[in-house]
Write a structure and sequence with these properties.
2 copies of one chain form a homodimer. By secondary structure, the first copy, chain A, is α/β, with parallel strands linked by helices. Chain A contains 14 helices and 17 strands. Chain A is elongated and about 85 Å long.
């Protein structure tokens, strides 16, 4: 089964509203194995809606339309559908009665303009709207190849659309889909580029495989999306598990989490687990931060989760050199000699924070987030990150220098994520794999 | 001028990612009077991209494409464009050199698969990417009516796409658009709800006015969007200025900024100006932070702008009660008596930070970001914010308690924005207007 999703509304083509209906409907269709060919967004123009509907119907077994069935003059989807069907609009007595009931329950007469919402093209059927005044419409169009295309018209208001889809459209489509299923899994990595990840995955990413593996990048996170499309749920699930396992073997600990998990959530869970294993009364494992260029972002990420007070008690934002000396005890001579952005100073910051916070681990970040402040030897994007830890005996510290691409926001974001990644690998007891 | 926006990516048609590029590009096109005919979203299938490109080019004067120019096998937009142009892909030496420089600066060899990102169809031109490894592509296709259709291919990553559009595509399109003009201005407020803002604007928001005024809400910021649509640039500009001035009269200092300005940028600019007015050698005006529930977010916002070291030297993340005592000198008795989330403790935090940082202003935040930790008298969302300032004589401090709606992220975001707002009004020499 193939599908096209058609969204109608001037506010969408003008960019004043982001279309979230199409993505939601796509997820619903994908889950029952429907192949989504395209999303198409059209303004409130009857002729444009008609031609979009005609071309979509030619391509697809199902066309889902949302929007353009409100009561106002610029709502033209039902007129467009009637024109494509070459049928007149007729009053649907059932829905007219519902509309009148809707308004009388609210103690006011039905405005005359709402009457249009009970109009349905002759030969089409009404879909009940449990959440609003616009009835939906369903019908079948004949394609030029003789096959039928099923058309469903739903409201544009996401809440009404979702309710109508789940109640009245999805059951019909499920019956038509013959049981095909797509299951998906997303695996997240941070630290290597998209091409380096793809190289490690090798043939797993070849086109036309099922399950398929693709990569996307968002805010430095390279994610693998595995889609498994089969006729039975069991098969789709087994194949997904098999390919997920192959991806995990290829990438190992580069994968930090899956689906909705964030990097900070994964690190928080590592810390929660460490503390959960401690015997009663033991001092908890705590982490502290010493931030220069990230200005508090790393501490913010470490406190994103409720319960973070279990492992995070305090952090230092030491933007100036004086603050690094005052709050962390960094020797001004060191800054003089190596510069504030240096592995030496980052290490001193981490050790100072570790000591002053009496924490078990301290992350320090010093870098040039730009756009100004770069030099030939330390261009914008140069960031030194140190991790100091203590486990009974003398503290350990190591530092790394990175060159992050992008603008100030991106450099700060990547710096904080890299610091979290260094902590994640430390807690795994493994070296950073890049 | 008519335009079509084409978004490429399996993650979009599968609904795994909501397409925000199309809405953003539409706003940009609308602002220069371009009529957007449709948005079209296609998966990573070369033949489908080709037919979508062909049909879009037939309809439009401009086709903007985003996505499908990454380095992996499922990135097929450049191949589809080459096929529609009936030309081979050729290596672009300029971009190859940029790519090699990009990787060598990061101390690693260019992965062989990235080479494809320097391939451009013969006869097309390369568009420089200032924020990533994928070069853009521009070319002109001939329509069957003999008219040209200008095609621009940009990355799918929103940040890279926006930068490329503004730098290289928009200036070309502006030169091509003649006639009808839509000018827009967005004014931002924080602190009052959408309906309170709408009430103050009154008839300015009536439908069918030109210029029109509408409100949108995003992350607590209530924004007014003014659209002025006229045949001449002069008229559109004059009318926009007139309505903007009426909106500003109605809302006064509730408006903190316009268009792309963020609240933190506006506050940073206030601080830059204060310091620019100081005589040489004078101690700069500096701000410090003492954060509990926001965990570093406020400091992060205050350091979002390059040059923030002029007014921000250090900040304190005091998540635990012990940290509040150690780092800020808050009397544990005070916490015992009033609770950590109280105006008394917030004031003590602000005064302690002011003193220890030797700053001119200190913002302190203590609250219950949830989802756990709420009580009947202090439910989740309860946040106390204090501002301490000193101007020669004894420090002044005041505090306010807010109840913010939403989840943990929202509560932390609103808390930090409200703290910035308290500082903004203090620097304006005015009381908080709500």
């Amino acid at each position: 089964m193939t599908g096209t999703i058609l969204s109608i509304g001037d506010e969408l083509v003008l960019g004043q509203t982001v279309d979230t209906n199409s993505a939601w409907l796509s997820q619903q269709l994908a889950a029952i194995g429907c192949i989504i060919l395209r999303h198409l967004t059209i303004g409130d123009h009857q002729l444009q809606i008609e031609s979009a509907l005609r071309e979509s119907a030619q391509l697809s077994d199902v066309v889902l339309i949302s929007g353009g069935i409100g009561p106002t003059e610029d709502d033209l989807t039902r007129q467009a559908l009637a024109s494509v069907m070459n049928e007149p609009l007729e009053l649907n007595a059932t829905w007219l009665a519902e509309l009148e009931k809707f308004f009388s329950q609210r103690g006011r007469p039905m405005p005359p303009m709402n009457r249009i919402q009970a109009m349905i093209p002759r030969g089409a059927s009404m879909i009940f709207n449990h959440a609003g005044t616009a009835a939906g419409i369903k019908t079948t169009l004949q394609r030029s190849d003789g096959k039928p295309c099923r058309v469903y018209v739903m409201p544009g208001v996401p809440k009404e659309m979702k309710k109508m889809f789940q109640t009245s459209v999805l059951p019909e489509l499920q019956a038509r889909s013959g049981g095909a299923v797509i299951l998906s899994r997303t695996l997240h990595t941070f630290g290597l580029g998209e091409s380096a990840i793809a190289e490690r995955l090798g043939p797993l990413m070849h086109r036309d495989r099922n399950p398929s593996v693709g990569t996307t990048v968002s805010a430095g996170v390279v994610s693998l999306r595995i889609n498994s499309r089969f006729d039975s749920m069991q098969r789709a699930s087994d194949e997904l598990a098999r390919i997920e396992s192959e991806c995990r073997s290829a990438l190992g600990d580069l994968i930090y989490g899956q689906d909705e998990q964030t990097l900070q959530e994964v690190v928080a869970n590592q810390l929660f687990e460490i503390n959960a294993r401690l015997s009663a009364g033991a001092t908890p494992y705590t982490v502290t931060t010493a931030e220069s260029c990230t200005g508090g972002l790393l501490a913010k990420l470490l406190t994103d989760l409720s319960g973070s007070s279990g492992y995070f008690h305090r952090g230092f934002v030491t933007y100036s050199n004086e603050a690094k000396a005052d709050l962390l005890g960094v020797d001004p001579q060191l800054i003089q000699q190596y510069g504030a952005v240096s592995e030496e100073v980052a290490k001193a910051m981490a050790l100072g924070a570790l000591d002053r916070a009496q924490a078990r681990a301290a992350l320090a970040i010093s870098g040039i987030a730009g756009p100004t402040g770069g030099t030939p030897s330390k261009p914008v994007g140069t960031v030194c990150i140190a991790l100091a830890t203590v486990d009974g005996s003398a503290p350990q510290v190591h530092a790394r220098t990175f060159l992050f691409p992008g603008d100030r926001d991106m450099i700060r974001d990547r710096s904080a994520k890299m610091a979290l990644t260094m902590l994640r690998f430390h807690l795994l007891g493994k070296p950073l794999p890049f």
